[in-house]
Write a structure and sequence with these properties.
The protein is an all-alpha fold and 114 residues long. It is globular. It is 17% helix and 0% strand. The protein has one domain.
């Protein structure tokens, strides 16, 4: 597993994108996809999945989760180093933001086609 990233698949077993235990995408502990602290998928600071700056899941520049070029989260072609993310699955992220009234982020995601 790469630092501060987790699998994006729909697997619910150990190590899967929907697994709630350590190394799982829905883990709420440190570094997990559903963790709100530093490095977590729901963290808004540098390195977090909800960060909009370089290296963040919501970054629109090269390597970011909303980037459409090679290595970006929105890229649709083959890539030697595919994007990995600490953002939770789309439906989880949308629900999380909606429940917390984060309308600006929801609008940004919608505009980016997420």
């Amino acid at each position: 597993m790469e630092n501060n990233t987790w699998p994006r698949d729909r697997y619910t077993g150990p190590g899967g994108g929907l697994y709630t235990g350590p190394d799982g995408g829905m883990y709420t502990g440190p570094g997990g996809g559903a963790y709100t602290g530093p490095g977590g998928g729901l963290y808004t600071g540098p390195g977090g999945g909800m960060y909009t700056g370089p290296g963040g899941g919501l970054y629109t520049g090269p390597g970011g989760g909303l980037y459409t070029g090679p290595g970006g989260g929105r890229y649709t072609g083959p890539c030697e180093h595919p994007y990995r993310s600490n953002l939770p699955p789309r439906e989880v992220l949308i629900n999380y933001l909606a429940q917390r009234g984060k309308t600006a982020l929801l609008s940004k995601l919608k505009a980016a086609g997420y």
